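This part of the workshop introduces the protein records we will be handling. An example says more than a description, so a record of this kind follows:
>
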Amino acid sequence: MAKLFEPFSLNHFTVKNRIMMSPMCQYSVWDEDGKPNDWHYVHYISRAIGGAGLIMMEMTDVDPNGRISVRDLGLWSDDQIPAFQRIMDQVHSYGAKIGVQIAHAGRKTESLELTPVAPSAIPFSDHYRTPQELTIDDIHRLVDQFGQAAKRAVKAGADVIEIHGAHGYLVHQFMSPLSNHRTDEYQDPVRFGAEVVQSVKSNLPHGTPLIMRLSAAEHVEDGYSFAELEKMAEAYQKHGVDMFDVSSGGNAPVMANTFPGYQVPYARALREHLNIPVIAVGMLETPELAESVIQQQHADMIAIARGMLRNPYWANTAAEVLGGTIQVPTEYDRAFSKEFIQRPSNVLV
């Protein structure tokens, strides 16, 4: 069997294959209340039906002022839990696991109704507003909000939690010399992120994995180096991170030179340096390439983003190509070769 379709286990968590749907903002909340709606319901459940082992819900904000836009998801209130639970229950019924990526946009807040905040009063670019510098009390409140959001996600049924520490959002902003010019204790690039990790971990049931997405490179000369990132990741691991989701960029208005697999070397290097499971991302949508990443032990899972937007059934399509296990409800049996179909006991029929 293709390695891509072997189960993966971490702590008390087991996912049926090595394929994760990458978190991708939908900007589709109707009433600006942070609650997922029918669009999100169809969006996520169709990928569970399509064979993904792990669905990672999009960037979900811990504070209403921490959204990129007023149409983003949020878990800053208990009132939001039922809408998430509705989706998670159905994802589980199709044999997939589901997680929530919790975050704060910081200086990358865009909606004019919201106020950008950051470690330092440095705008992301000339096209963004200058953020307000966070006070120590603000920082302590945000750390607690990350933990409370994780607690709500678990109550809704999340199997894993991912902290967004990449792509130029608030945790990443504290990590980077591009955006953190503080002179107090939070000038330490790891301190805020480590406190967030501890806050989240303390609100998770024992054995629930904590994933953290990191930008391995900033793609600008004045940003942190990969060697510095490795040291920061090592600190996060010591504070409770179980797995890293390794991306790059996002904290400066520059574009990296992209090509299929361009971020895999970062994932492999972090995996080897820390002896920790990693998720590789970045244009891995060719089944053969995704399989190669797992076969060569460059990563433990792969995440598919735009490829899964184009094809909700990417995982089952890859299974046909690679001879892996296809898991679909009986209504879709006629679309696939019968010898590859497997029916998990908890899949609806």
In short: The CA atoms of residues 88 and 157 lie 6 Å apart. The first helix runs from residue 38 to 49. The chain has a mean pLDDT of 95. The two ends are 25 Å apart (CA to CA).
